[in-house]
Amino acid sequence: MKEFNFKILSPDRVIFEGKCTSLVFDAPDGKYGILADHSPVISAVSEGELTVTSPSGTQTFTLPGGILRFENNEGTVVVS
Question: Is the overall model pTM greater than 0.85, yes or no?
Answer without folding.
Answer: yes
